[in-house]
Amino acid sequence: MDYKETKAPVSTITYDKDAIEAPTNNIYEAISIIAKRASQINGDLKKELLDKLDEFATYNDSLEEVFENKEQIEVSKFYEKLPKSTAIAVEEWLEGRVYHRSPQDKK
């Protein structure tokens, strides 16, 4: 998934409760599914960020040689400006891009 191209809001907004619970007819189940998807997204973003920051890592034993890498700062700022994982998960849920099934369904 490319989370950088998402249209999720960066700030907090109010969602229509009926639209969120529509696919499951249960608001608690819908929120549980969205929370699990947000955890997946958060893990993906964290792994991607750590991989990019490892490129800039310097392994020095000297504490005196601490310096700021401008590229590393830019990468960190870019990820800070992305929408939160919960906002991305809600957007995916409302667009119907999250697959879910109940273990009770025998389909």
Describe this structure in words.
The mean pLDDT is 86. The protein is 51% helix and 0% strand. It has four helices and no strands. The longest helix has 28 residues. The protein has 107 residues and is mainly α. It is elongated.
> Biggest sheet, open or closed, and with what strands and sense?
none
Inertia-based shape: elongated
Helical fraction equals 40-55%
Can you write the helix and strand succession as a string? Answer: HHHH
Low-confidence stretches at least 5 residues in length (pLDDT < 50)?
none
Could you give the distance between the termini? 27 Å
Radius of gyration: 19 Å
Tally the beta strands: 0
User: What fraction of residues sit in β-strands?
Assistant: under 5%
User: In terms of structural class, how would the helical and strand content be classed?
Assistant: mainly alpha
Whole-number average pLDDT?
A: 86
H/I helix tally: 4
